[in-house]
Each structure stands twice: as structure tokens, then as C-alpha cells.
Amino acid sequence: MKRQSLYFVAPGQVELIEEELPALLPEQVLVETILSAISPGTELLFYRGLFPEDIQVDESIAALKQSAAYPLKYGYSLVGRVMAVGQAVDAAWQNRLVFAFHPHESHFNAGPSELIPVPADTSAEDAALLPNMETALNFVMDGAPLVGEHAVIFGQGIVGLLTTAVLAQFPLGSLVTLDRYANRRAASLELGARASIDSQDIERLKSLQPGGADLVFELSGSPPALDQAIDVTAYSGRVVIGSWYGRKQAALNLGGRFHRSRIRLVSSQVSSIAPELSGRWTKERRFSLAWEMLRKIKPSRLVTQRIPISQAASAYQLLDLHPEQSIQIVFTYRQDK
């Protein structure tokens, strides 16, 4: 049996390659992909050749335990249907709709432990954004917002928008977001931001929060934004750094005010639970909350393009050259019904 797999082959180049699907093992199931979601920030680092080459692509995801070097498969937001089960697998898996942290490809074999059943009341498109929702929850948990705090989010890509949607449910003093693109700012307001302003207009942000922000999230993927985030943080405030910059360097002014203001920089990454929470929180508990938030927020409304996997190159060109035209792209597959 053949499958189509998307490979990043060089900076600015992706190819859809047909390859032989390995034989199904007794303890595996065969999944036929319905759709997969692009993670714009991370995947553009691979597309542009800006990823660090001295690490594995992802140590926590079995399908991505490979060296960060071309050619490589990537992607981790896939929804498909189980089409066949191995002899050692419970027959109840047959025809089940599942989510997988798996690269963009039309078919794959996996053990049931690598799959997450999609709840019956959740659409495939909402389910494809499960990792983004889990990441947003992780940022908020690491930020630990308090009642009445003034919060700021730099970056309103898909993860930034979902972070806004989660934070909007807290009784904050204010919630202001920043992004370069008008369509993202409009979506941010719809999701509950009190104000959403152009990321170049830092002076307006300061006028909206003259005392500074208690809690700032840097989710833009742009290293200069981290220095701006520090600049607008109040005394003893905290900056949650969710962006992965790859090989891009961040030049920071850590001289005067930062040195005396006791500002905390918090590294936040979704592959683990913060140590201070791990006694009570597990990945399973966080996933359960993520499904609840998916049902409540319905992030599929943020999907701006649905592109056949055969036209994948055009999707990355759009993100690379015209990011203002997109918020979230999903790939569709021929067997999508």
C-alpha cells in the first residue's frame, strides 16, 4: 500500500512523496488521515531553515524523534480514522476517529497508545487544534494570572488567539493583545481581548496600562518582541516566553529598569508540566481540560484556508510571503468525507 508524505527538503522547499506504507504489525492500527493542521510558527522555522541542527525534532513525540536535518517530516496535529486493526488490538478501535501527534501524511501505522480518541461532540477541525489549545493552557498555567491583574499578549497567531480566549475567562483588570495584522486583531477582540493594537504602537499600549502589565506573554515568535515585553512589564511582574525562536537571537536590554524591577522571565514549553504543578496535574488531566476548552471556544472558526495536501507548497508560500492573509491553515486529504 502506498501513502503520500510531506517532506521539508530544503529551505523554501517541500515535496509530497509517495512511499510504501510499512506492513501493519499485530499491535498496531492503520490510520487514514482526514485533515492535518499546520503549526505556522514552528513549521515556518523548518520551511525557512532556521531550526537548530543540534537537537531532535521533538523528543516527546515518537513520530518526530529524528535529527533536525533535511529531508524531514514534520507536523503534529492530525485527525484521521482507524481503517484496520492488528490481531492484538481491541476491535473497538475499528473506524474510530482519532487525533495523533503525527507529521502530515495520508496514512500511517501506530500503536493505540499513540492515538487519542476524538470525543463524539468534537468536530475533526476542532480536534486538529488540540495541541494549540493544550499549549495555550500551558502558557496560562505557567503565567498563573491573578484576579484584577493587567495582562498583555504579544502575538495573535493561532496559539496567541487561543491564549487570549482562555485568559478572557479570568476576572482580569485588563487584557490587551498586540499583532501586526488586522485580521488577527479583529479575531482577538471577538475572543475577548479588551483591546488589540498594532504591535508597532507600544506607546498606545503604555497609555492603556500606564502602571505597566503584571503578566505578559511573548508568543509572537519575533525576538525583538521579548525586549518590548520586558519594557512594558511592571515591577515584580512576569514575562512568559512561549515563542520558539530557533536560531534567531534575542538582543535584550537587561540594564537599568529590568535589573531593579525584579521582573521574572518564565520559560514555558508544553512538552512537560511545571514542577510546582506536577504533583496534581498530569498530561492526561491537561488534555481533558483542553478538550473541554475546544468544545467551549470552537477554534475551527479561526481556520482561514483549507488546502489539499497536494497543494502543500502553496500553503507554505502563503504563510511565508503573505502571513497577513492567514490565521490557520489545514490540509485536507482525498478521503476526507
Describe the model.
With 337 residues, this protein is an alpha/beta fold. It folds into two domains: 151 residues, Alpha-Beta Complex (Quinone Oxidoreductase, Chain A, domain 1), CATH 3.90.180; 136 residues, NAD(P)-binding Rossmann-like Domain (Rossmann fold), CATH 3.40.50. It contains ten helices and 15 strands. The longest helix has 15 residues. It is globular, with a radius of gyration of 20 Å. The chain starts with a strand and ends in a 5-residue tail after the last strand.
Q: How many E strands?
A: 15
Total of helices: 10
CATH fold name of the largest domain, please?
Quinone Oxidoreductase, Chain A, domain 1
Share of β-strand residues: 25-35%
Major β-sheet annotation: 7 strands, mixed
Compose a concise summary of this entry.
The protein has helices at 40-48, 124-128, 130-143, 158-167, 182-190, 202-208, 223-231, 256-261, 283-297, 312-321; strands at 2-10, 13-20, 29-37, 78-85, 97-100, 107-110, 115-117, 150-154, 174-179, 195-198, 213-218, 233-241, 264-267, 303-308, 328-332. With 337 residues, it is an alpha/beta fold. The protein has two domains: 2-118 and 299-332, Alpha-Beta Complex (Quinone Oxidoreductase, Chain A, domain 1); 132-267, Rossmann fold (3-Layer(aba) Sandwich), CATH 3.40.50.720.
Q: Can you tag this structure with a few keywords?
A:
Rossmann fold, seven-stranded mixed beta sheet, 337 residues, Quinone Oxidoreductase, Chain A, domain 1, six-stranded parallel beta sheet, 10 helices, globular, alpha/beta, 2 domains
Topology:
Blueprint (H helix, E strand, L loop, with lengths): L1 E9 L2 E8 L8 E9 L2 H9 L29 E8 L11 E4 L6 E4 L4 E3 L6 H5 L1 H14 L6 E5 L3 H10 L6 E6 L2 H9 L4 E4 L3 H7 L4 E6 L4 H9 L1 E9 L14 H6 L2 E4 L15 H15 L5 E6 L3 H10 L6 E5 L5
Parallel strand pairs: 8-9, 8-11, 9-10, 11-12, 12-13, 14-15
Antiparallel strand pairs: 1-2, 3-4, 3-6, 3-15, 4-5, 5-7
